[in-house]
């Protein structure tokens, strides 16, 4: 029986080069990796750690400049190439390596075309991306047990392919994982707020403002294991601007500075969690046969509990829901909890 043809696409912006060998060895046990592409702006020094993997494993490094600050052109380039390969009809399996939820629609589209999709990423990969794949391989967990099993001299026969149905988690498991993801996101948000507040306290000028880039550098040095994308934002500027109840933002040319409005972000976070709890409660009771609940029901429920999204950094309930794509799916005037 002919080996499965695997098309490999790696988002270098979101995956560490230390997993390069592991990615190849894991996929080679499944079939022939006939396409090996890795995407990024290779002028960035932070991606130079991939150079050895690119040479050793014959990756085709696709250069994608940052045309506009804050916009990820790499994601779009990868998606376009993946669709070209799909229409070429030569790939049996697509392997998408990233921790970015932006690739969820691509994984869904590939599955709809009857393609087997293997997702690969870290512990912090979004649930939406994990569930969109036929199979998701956690590189953090797989790293330790898989290394001793590598036999470079021996050819290992591909293991039997399990049915996709066996890999799809049950509804209760998905709900439990969703709750865990929410808790983890809240913990990460709190960590970031604490760092921003502490940095401003120690480094602010007389008017209370501190340079945002310097604060970001302080976060990077702490090696938290996650970044701004893992809490639902594409840039740090958008993150800081989404919390007007916590920070005042000042722009001077291309420079951005902030100062803390309050020393008690925990109070804001508590109110935010109250709104999330009402949204989940309304969804559970009022969702229709298509799995969506009307936002107007949620608005009435919030009003009855004397709750509002104003003061939480959002002009209305629709904007609040759309700010949490990892928690909700928004469709016109309805929403669904993930």
Could you give a short description of this structure?
The protein is built from 13 helices and 12 strands. By secondary structure, it is an alpha/beta fold. A hairpin with a 2-residue loop joins strand 11 (328-331) and strand 12.
Describe the 3D structure.
The chain has 338 residues and is α/β, with parallel strands linked by helices. It folds into three domains: 4-168, Rossmann fold, CATH 3.40.50.1010; 175-263, Nucleotidyltransferase, domain 5 (2-Layer Sandwich), CATH 3.30.420; 266-337, Nucleotidyltransferase, domain 5, CATH 3.30.420. Helix content is 43%, strand content 18%. The chain has 13 helices and twelve strands. The chain has helices at residues 20-28, 51-56, 73-88, 104-112, 127-132, 139-146, 164-167, 171-203, 212-221, 236-241, 265-286, 295-304, 317-322, and strands at 4-11, 31-40, 60-63, 93-97, 116-121, 135-138, 210-211, 247-252, 255-260, 293-294, 328-331, 334-337. The strands form three sheets. Strands 3-2-1-4-5-6 form a six-stranded parallel β-sheet, sandwiched between helices. The longest helix is centred in the middle third of the chain and has 33 residues, at 171-203.
